[in-house]
Write a structure and sequence with these properties.
With 449 residues, the chain is of the alpha+beta class. The chain is built from 22 helices and 10 strands. The protein has 4 domains: 5-164, 2-Layer Sandwich (Beta Polymerase, domain 2); 167-250, Hydrophobic Seed Protein; 253-387, cca-adding enzyme, domain 2 (Orthogonal Bundle), CATH 1.10.3090; 394-441, no CATH class. It is globular. The structure holds adenosine-5'-triphosphate.
């Protein structure tokens, strides 16, 4: 790099103490072991962009495992090694006691196949490591063992591209080498509000013309789709992928027809709504979006689509099963609503209908229905009704003298039902209900006491 830049101050100013300490420690150990060590990839990109990123990846020139072991010793952690590529993960407990991990890779010249056009002798191993990465903004490194600390290593114009807010590939065969990069380009473009460079966009189109998506293994596609679903705005990524022709190249069923797009938007809104409630249970975003992507498709097409998207067998079964379950529930919901208009529908009956559904399916149904009243009911079920418990417990029944048996759960369920339906609010009313049931069943002889 021509103009040397040091980012020690950025690290000092922008990172939490734990990350700072770790980077300095890695640098110190690198110096002691005589191993050049770098922080690389997304972490450096986000440091320059001033976005939080706890994911520290290290690359060592020489032998990463030696450095990983030293790091683990200092941190009181352990190392999981992959000898073959000299990569490893250091697993340790952070200051708060949470499990933390750092990837430590090795950059060695013998790992790289040299593209014929490159003058090999001039490349260092860190340069080769960075050259194999997807985009210039992801091909930055910070040297940690140098003095002064934190020399920025930028062989491919990553700083410039961050400044110009552009996603650029490092060479023209980048998408041929790895077509998942087409999806990654869109993901970073949408996440940071950058734009894919004109030449990179042409190379994406070129890759699609060459039908390279067909060669892509399912599990890699699934991995990228999952990442997209975890973004803040997955729909923006999907719309852009649609526009570039990536979606239809992956599977013709994926095309974003207007109804599907509108549904995906609503799903995104529902997920944001749910997240803001800060419930403990967190939905799997990809499941919700995959349900949306298959909206309106017949079973066989859906199954094909999920196969193409590389869903592991068990997950494919799970999502197909959820779709089928929703179908059954839709019918029962309709019946419930009809009864509602005749004023006999009860909340407890609704809860029974909805009980088999996963959180993902519930959010999906909520997004899918155009019926505002049903939407409200579903939201109350998600936030409140499904968590309700009876105000009396087994201990109360024991005190009433009920001998062990199935009546316990029957009564508690009845109490909950009555509570949901507003027929027995509070402990006293539910105890009275319990007594009534016990009298009916004549399990306890109240006249004796
Ligand atoms: P995120 O913030 O989404 O985690 P990231 O850049 O950290 O972004 P990872 O998927 O964890 O994403 O990848 C770490 C680094 O590995 C990237 O910054 C990039 O340099 C490199 N990388 C990941 N996937 C590829 C790929 N398909 N081709 C080339 N390089 C890749």
């Amino acid at each position: 790099p021509s103009k040397e830049r040091h980012v020690g101050k950025l690290i000092q100013d922008r990172l939490p103490p734990s990350a700072k300490d770790l980077l300095h420690l890695a640098g110190k150990l690198g110096r002691e072991l005589g191993l050049p060590v770098y922080a690389v990839g997304g972490f450096v990109r986000d440091l320059l962009l001033n976005k939080p990123n706890q994911d520290i990846d290290l690359v060592v020139e020489g032998n990463g495992i030696a450095l990983a072991k030293a790091l683990a010793q200092e941190l009181g952690g352990r190392v999981r090694e992959h000898q073959e590529f000299l990569t490893s993960v250091v697993i340790f407990k952070d200051a708060k006691g949470a499990e933390s991990r750092i990837d430590v890779a090795t950059a060695r010249l013998e790992y790289y196949e040299y593209p014929a056009a490159l003058p090999t002798v001039e490349l260092s191993s860190i340069k080769m490591d960075l050259f194999r990465r997807d985009f210039s903004i992801n091909a930055l490194a910070v040297r940690l063992d140098s003095t002064p600390f934190g020399q920025l290593v930028d062989f491919f114009g990553g700083q410039r591209d961050i400044k110009e807010r552009v996603i650029r590939v490092l060479h023209t065969l980048s998408f041929v080498e790895d077509p998942t990069r087409c999806l990654r380009a869109v993901r970073f473009e949408q996440r940071y509000d950058f734009r894919i460079s004109t030449s990179a966009e042409r190379l994406v189109k070129n890759a699609l013309d060459l039908k390279l998506m067909d060669k892509l293994a399912g599990p890699r596609l699934f991995g990228e789709f999952k990442h997209i679903c975890d973004e803040d705005n997955p729909l923006a990524c999907l719309v852009r992928m649609d526009q570039l022709g990536i979606l239809s190249a992956i599977a013709p069923q994926l095309t974003l027809i207007p109804t599907r797009k509108a549904l995906l938007q609503t799903l995104q809104d529902m997920l944001s709504w749910y997240r803001l409630l800060y419930f403990e249970k967190i939905p799997q975003a990809w499941l919700v979006y995959f349900l949306g992507l298959s909206h309106g498709l017949p079973y066989a097409d859906t199954s094909d689509l999920f196969l193409r998207l590389g869903l592991p067998e068990n997950k494919r079964g799970e999502i197909l099963n959820q779709r089928e379950q929703m179908r059954a529930v839709r019918g029962r919901l309709e019946a419930w609503q009809k009864r509602q208009n005749g004023q006999t529908s009860k909340v407890s009956a609704l809860c029974e209908v909805l009980a088999p559904l996963s959180l993902e399916s519930l959010l999906y149904l909520m997004a899918e229905t155009g019926d505002e009243d049903l939407q409200k009911k579903l939201s109350r079920y998600i936030t409140q009704w499904q968590h309700e418990k009876a105000d009396i417990s087994g201990d109360d029944l024991k005190e009433l003298g009920l001998p062990p048996g199935p009546l316990y759960s029957h009564i508690l369920r009845s109490a909950l039902k009555a509570k949901l339906d507003g027929e027995a609010l509070g402990r006293d009313a539910q105890l009275a209900l319990a007594v009534t049931i016990l009298r009916e069943k004549q399990e306890v002889d109240f006249h004796k006491n």
